[in-house]
Amino acid sequence: MSNNVITVHFGEAGWDRGTQGVLGAGSRLAESLGGELIAIVLGTASDELRAGLSDVANQVIVAEQGLTEYQPERALAALQALCDGKNAGAVLLANDTYSQEITPRLAHRLGGSSMADAQSVSFQDGDLRVERSAYGGKATSVYSMKQMPAVVWVRARAIDPPERSGVGGAIEEATPELPEPKIRIVGREEEAQEGVKLEDATIVVSGGRGLGGPEPFESVIKELSDAIGAVQGASRAACDAGWVPPNWQVGQTGKKVAPELYLAVAISGASQHLLGMGDSKVIAAINTDPDAPIFKHCSFGIVEDYKNVVPLLTEKLRSA
Ligand SMILES: Cc1cc2nc3c(=O)[nH]c(=O)nc-3n(C[C@H](O)[C@H](O)[C@H](O)COP(=O)(O)OP(=O)(O)OC[C@H]3O[C@@H](n4cnc5c(N)ncnc54)[C@H](O)[C@@H]3O)c2cc1C
Q: Is residue 83 a contact partner of residue 91, using CB atoms and an 8 Å limit?
């Protein structure tokens, strides 16, 4: 029976929240299937990543040679070889761009089925079930995956980290045969990033077009963010206007975040924005328009001009 579960990790992500989310989904699924959890790392695995995976997985396989730089053909060849013969009912990946690219191709190579953007993966009544958000988060669709292995990328940061620990799975180095790279990387531009990544933040404060320009992002919104240890984000409208860098964008075509608290300031709550932050634990909003769609999706909302609310909130939170 195909009752083992494989989780796939890229070494460069390290022991981040996404890695822990995939591992959490994998460990719970393996337990309900009554199988083993096998974690595969492509690229260089830090000591922290090795320790974190081995604490939860029954087996950790690290394939570094020829895989330190992402090349889809090589990553696929390595995964095909390493997943072979493992009796995997499911192969879970995170929601990084590499994983999104290779998920359907890996499913094809393994003769399985593929699913993208899963909010949850479970085993129920003999079926592997995947839940996905539909209609911009207004509905949830549930799929039953019949063709094993089910190769699925999950909304890793929104999924709880593993509960189990102390497994002490053996760590094995692997050197699968790899094809010559078909793509040559001629340049690389690293995203400028200081401090905690937007995707890993516990609190996100995002601003939208209603802020009226770049200045509030550098003053009132920054002051509030600093006071509560939040990372700043933005709507696409604010990014497109050039008020903040493009890598601040949250949404369908931006970053997917799932913090404990997401505060949307002067953001209407378009479905494309909601797709990037709808999994946040608590959503709060400040908007002058009582009919703004964001209010249908938040736990706390203030109908008011941000200029009258944000400085007061910052002062209160600072003194608290
Ligand atoms: C294919 C596609 C992909 C997209 N991807 C994304 C994406 O990834 N992320 C994203 O964000 N959008 C995305 N969009 C754009 C999206 O549809 C919206 O246009 C965008 O999110 C709107 O940004 P906004 O809420 O800042 O602006 P608006 O919709 O203009 O909203 C501004 C809000 O500010 C409020 N406001 C005005 N003044 C104040 C004030 N003084 N105080 C408080 N509130 C005030 C207004 O009431 C209003 O609700 C995408 C669109 C398409 C077609």
A: yes
